[in-house]
Specification:
The protein is about 5% helix and about 50% strand. It is mainly β. The protein has one domain: Porin (Beta Barrel). The strands form four sheets. A 16-stranded antiparallel β-barrel has the order 2-5-6-7-8-9-10-12-13-14-15-19-20-21-22-25. A three-stranded antiparallel beta sheet has the order 4-3-17, with no helix packed on it. A two-stranded antiparallel ribbon has the order 16-18. About 5% of the residues have low confidence.
Length: about 450
């Protein structure tokens, strides 16, 4: 690990030297009227990851056992097209791909990757932002700001993915076909959503068989999902152009918020009773959170978040997940690993489940004698404290610590992140905590 840290620091210095030559860029924006109130804009984003990972026990990569691995990948590659095309009509599209590394679709066709993330139209009913009605394929949702994050402005290396509660299960990478109302009235910011989820059978994976031990997403029946999110803003109002929520404003706004959110879908889950009958259960999620992002003296800034999540997917639901997993398989089986949803190999850990989660993060943009965001540093830490029913008395605690180097704000930045995550062992049906494992990732983000 020591040699790896030296390697990463060297790469960081190399990228810094090259990236400082990046010229200042303006948005690719076309005015549709003389004042510019009507416009159409295009953005591009790429997040390249260079990662060293301690693999979970039993991990295989293309059939070979590997305790550790190094991989290069594109965590996110996106193109946005959006604009205010009339005084009250807004349109938004996003196209791209995610988690593209050497193991992407290892047994299929690696060229099948990009897809439409969003495609929506929105009409502003009021003269201001008090009421907007929209519909289409969209990430807009309830629960939390991290359920609908602006990935180009993330403060940490990655978002807390557990807040995107049904990602790639009954949605399209957190997007659903929805109709919604959103707006800002005084200090209040609200959004109410009615979504038409996709069936679990269309997510490109073989759904697990119905179980008598734990709930899974139902493969029979269909119901709509209701979501809501309400924010009270003490000072400045948050950005409201798109439904995405900013990760950090880097001192450009004074934001102090409290928020509450939820989601409900009847009969979304199923399991078998002891007598063999099919039982259906509702999916219910709830969260309360606070977000602070404020400027300080000497052009410094503080960004902090604290949230409590109560997630209910039905009896003993648990799902493993690892971002851009660097592995392809495992030598473990149902007798010595946790069975159910998601791969237990590579960098995966229990990320989604019935239970409760506390998530927090804090970052500090270091002071500067210059007001711009060139050559600035922002260290951060984050922690996830989860307690899932399926794991009994074992908690799932994940820590991250990192450093952002803003070459030119969010347009060009380097991020170095260290993660410590848990593992679990199963012995005669009992789940016990195993050794903690680590990963070290360097990200280079470019965004115009």
């Amino acid at each position: 690990m020591k040699k790896t840290i030296i390697l990463w620091v060297s790469l960081l210095a190399c990228f810094s030297t090259l990236a400082q030559k990046t010229p200042d860029t303006e948005a690719l924006k076309l005015k549709l009227n003389e004042s510019g109130s009507r416009y159409f804009q295009v953005t591009f984003l790429n997040q390249a990851w260079f990662r060293f990972n301690d693999n979970n026990p039993g991990t295989t990569v293309n059939g070979s056992l590997q305790n550790q691995s190094f991989d290069i990948g594109l965590r996110r590659t996106r193109m946005q097209l959006y604009g205010q095309i009339t005084d009250r009509t807004f349109m938004y599209f996003q196209f791209g791909q995610n988690n593209f590394n050497a193991q992407y679709n290892a047994t299929g066709n690696r060229k099948i990757a990009p897809f439409f993330h969003d495609a929506l139209g929105e009409y502003r009913v009021s003269s201001g932002n008090q009421l907007k009605i929209g519909g289409g394929l969209s990430i807009i949702s309830g629960i939390s700001r991290f359920s609908q994050p602006s990935i180009g402005t993330i403060m940490t290396m990655d978002v807390p993915v557990f807040a995107q509660t049904t990602v790639d299960q009954i949605d399209q990478f957190s997007r659903k076909l929805s109709i919604y109302a959103r707006g800002q009235i005084g200090h209040w910011d609200y959004r109410f959503i009615l979504s038409d989820p996709f069936p679990i059978t269309s997510n490109g994976q073989t759904p697990p068989a119905i179980s008598s031990s734990y709930a899974n997403f139902s493969q029979k029946g269909h119901s709509l999902q209701q979501q809501g999110y309400l924010i009270y803003q003490f000072f400045d109002q948050e950005n409201h152009t798109t439904p995405y929520m900013t990760g950090t404003y880097l001192g450009s706004k004074k934001i102090v918020n409290v928020a509450i959110g939820g989601a409900y879908q009847p009969n979304a889950m199923w399991q078998k009773s002891a007598q063999g009958d099919t039982l259906y259960q509702d999916m219910k999620h709830f969260a309360i959170e606070s977000f602070v992002d404020i400027p300080l003296q000497n052009h410094a800034a503080l960004s902090a978040y604290l949230g409590y999540f109560n997630t209910n997917y039905g009896t003993n639901y648990l799902r493993y997940n690892g971002s851009m997993n660097p592995a392809t398989g495992t030598t473990l089986n149902a007798s010595n690993s946790i069975s159910g949803q998601g791969p237990v190999y590579g960098n995966s850990y229990p990320m989604f489940g019935t239970g409760s989660v506390v998530y927090t993060q804090i970052g500090y943009l270091l002071p500067s004698n210059r007001a711009d965001l060139s050559n600035r540093l922002m260290p951060y830490i984050s922690a996830t404290f989860a307690k899932y029913d399926r794991l009994g008395n074992n908690s799932t605690t994940t820590f991250n610590a990192g450093l952002n180097y803003f070459i030119q704000g969010h347009k060009s930045k380097l991020s170095l992140d260290f993660q410590s995550r848990p593992t679990y062992q199963v012995n005669q049906g009992d789940v016990k905590a195993g050794n903690r494992l680590n990963s070290l990732t360097l990200q280079f983000q470019v965004f115009i």
